[in-house]
Amino acid sequence: SLDHITRNLDGQILAKLEMFNPGNSKKDRIALQIINDAEESSELLQGQTVVELTSGNTGTALAMICSQRNYPFVAVMSKGNSVERVLMMEHLGAEVVLVEQKPGGVLGNVTGEDLQLVEEVTETITKKRQAFRVDQFNRKGNFLAHYLHTAPELWSQSSGRIDGFCDFVGSGGTYAGISQFLKEKNTQIKCFVIEPKGAAVLSGQKITESSHPIQGGGYCMTNLPLLRNIPIDGYLEVSGQQARTFVHELAVKEGIFAGFSSGANLAGALELLKGPCRGGTVAIIVADSGLKYLSTDLWN
């Protein structure tokens, strides 16, 4: 419970700290789920190469799992992402392929256009090596990891006292899995999608600023398969500066050293406590560790 941050507010915020997973992020869950599912279905064969595009967290999780299970792993990532993630993946045994950003791209600001360039390289490598593509934006394991595990843990740890939930969307798996579970428990729980200000395409807004510093999401993608038929009660917009501000708040007031999207999630939760969830309890995910952003402007 973020009691210091909510001290003068009507309501409370519960933060689930996913940076304590072995790879320091929530993506450990989906990597394990997808690899387990693929092994059980024999889609992934012994010794086969595994390939995935990543902003770094999914790649780190896959690097750990593939090293343990003797699968060669290739992580494909935009050069716009933080260098700490490259080093982590390499030291965990991954081959990391870095893709140039679009002309004029800004280091630390990975756009949907940058991600498309990464996707093209990922597909080429997958075909060339006859690899297993993790495909986190489409595989049901991304949803299931959070529906079967993260959400039940959150429900149990909160004793079912949740009135609202909000999440910054990348692939959509975290939001989809958790919100679906919460709605099945209580249809009155309000679930909100968080997008970057100026790039809120899921809520139908025009793109005015596709370049933003909140790594791991906000790619201006309107087609997110994992969000199909998933209940959404509303949309929240958070600026890069707001995300920075509330990451610092987490660190200084709560002793939680987190990354960009966690600041966005906190900003969204505070907005809910001032409006539709006033007086209630809002749950958020602290997605990863601030240690993965030391080279970025998050801490400068």
Overview of this structure, please?
It is a single chain. The chain is α/β, with parallel strands linked by helices. Helix content is 38%, strand content 15%. It has 8 helices and 9 strands. The strands form 2 sheets. It has a 5-stranded parallel β-sheet. Helix 1 (27-40) crosses helix 5, helix 2 (57-69) runs parallel beside helix 3 (83-91) and helix 5 (140-157) packs across helix 6. It is globular, with a radius of gyration of 18 Å.
Features:
alpha/beta; 5-stranded parallel β-sheet; 8 helices; globular
Write the layout of secondary structure elements.
Elements lengths: L11 E6 L9 H14 L9 E4 L3 H13 L3 E6 L4 H9 L3 E5 L12 H18 L2 E2 L6 H18 L6 E5 L4 H13 L4 E7 L37 E5 L1 H15 L5 H15 L6 E6 L14
Parallel strand pairs: 1-9, 2-3, 2-5, 3-4, 6-7, 6-9, 7-8
Helix pairs in contact: 1-2, 1-5, 2-3, 5-6, 7-8
**What fraction, in percent, of the residue positions are helical?**
25-40%
Identify low-pLDDT runs: none
Kindly provide the radius of gyration, computed on alpha-carbon positions and rounded to a whole number of angstroms: 18 Å
Average of per-residue pLDDT values: 95
The end-to-end span amounts to: 27 Å
**Overall geometric form:** globular
Portion of residues in beta strands equals: 15-25%
- Give the topology string: H per helix, E per strand: EHEHEHEHEHEHEEHHE
Structural class by secondary-structure content? alpha/beta
Please work out how many helical segments DSSP would assign: 8
Structure summary, number of beta strands: 9
Enumerate the strands of the largest sheet in spatial order, edge to edge or round the barrel: 1-9-6-7-8
